[in-house]
Amino acid sequence: MDTSKPEASAAALPLYSIHAIRYGHLERRSSENFLGGDSHDVAMPLDYYVWVIKGDDGRAILVDTGFSKATGEKRGRQILRPVAEGLRALDVDPGTVEHVIITHMHYDHAGNLPLFPKATFHIQEREMSFCTGRCMCQDIFRHHFEAEDVVEMVRRLFIGRVAFCNGTQEIAPGLSVHLVGGHTDGHQVVRVHTARGWVVLAADALHFYANLERRIPFPAFYNLADMLAAFDELLRLAETPDHIVPGHDPEVMARYPASSPGMEGWIARLDADPVCADVKALPAGYSGIG
Questions:
Q1: Contact at 8 Å (CB) between 243 and 198?
Q2: CATH number of the domain enclosing 143
Q3: Which range marks the domain in which residue 167 is found?
Q4: 226-271 pLDDT, tens per residue?
Q5: Through-space distance between the first and last CA atoms of the chain, rounded to whole angstroms
Q6: Which of 26, 118, 156, 187 is deepest in the core (most CB within 10 A)?
């Protein structure tokens, strides 16, 4: 697939804004966030995000849909503010969203589908094959999926609301998806042209900044080799390493400005320059993997 850097013609591409909505939270230890564990075992919580990409015309494309209240309660995850509330704070009506990119079908990225009755869902064909195929006979894989989310996506398929991607695909000028696999068989990342350059929404190809910095992946994956190769793909696709946004790191809220006053710690503007790019990605007292 074509993963080349943008050419000079990028100057003619539209510029998008990107907003990260922090909707959920989970207390967690660092030993749970790195393959092989971590002898330091310090607090290193997970945050849960969905992302909104807006063009000059004000239309919004959503990346991932989060999990519902019922799923959060079932799995012991805290919802801070519902996804729909975050969207409306950005003047996005879920009922009118026309395009949703699903990075992968795990429960925390592909729930809440009924909120988006008019949307077409852009997903890798390999991901749908994965979450409806023989791998789901194994609990270690299906644990991360909600059956109703998968069934709901199949319903959308049968009413013409699913658009399959195969590898690299342009969703709109200056906005593309790229198959990396690894975390799931059909995981895709999203590359966005912004005023500060090419930003890559890594979703679960990269849970924390520290996974990339230490080159030690999060311990939930389908193919370890592809998970590690995805790190290099992210670096190829992004303008700089600082243009890669991980999928679950609380540091995202510290590194980027709020989208509007009053949204601090809730909704961050990812197309803006980081407000503190030198923030340590690792928790206080953390000195490496032991």
A1: yes
A2: 3.60.15.10
A3: 12-269
A4: 999 999 999 999 999 999 999 999 999 999 999 999 999 999 999 9
A5: 36
A6: 187
Domain tally, the chain: 1
Q: Which has the closest alpha carbon to 283: 77, 78, 38, 23? A: 38
Domain annotation covers residue 281 = no
Tokens of 25: 């939270």
In this predicted model, what pLDDT tens digit does every residue of 41-65 receive, in sequence order? 999 999 999 999 999 888 999 999 9
Using only C-alpha atoms, the chain has a radius of gyration, in whole angstroms, of 18
Q: Give the helix/strand (H/E) hosting 226.
A: helix 224-237
Distance between CA atoms of 9 and 167, rounded to whole angstroms? 22
Amino acid occupying residue 172: A
Q: How many helices (H) and strands (E) does the chain have?
A: 8, 13
* Helix ranges, 51-191 (H): 69-75, 83-89, 125-131, 139-142, 147-158
The amino acid occupying position 181 is G
Show the tokens assigned to 197: 């350059």
Cα–Cα dist 289/239, whole Å = 28
Angstrom distances, CA of residue 81 to CA of 9, 14, 59, 64, 68? 40, 31, 23, 16, 11
The verdict on pTM exceeding 0.90 is: yes
Q: How far apart are alpha carbons 194 and 30 in whole angstroms?
A: 32
User: Residue 27 carries which side chain, given as an amino acid letter?
Assistant: E
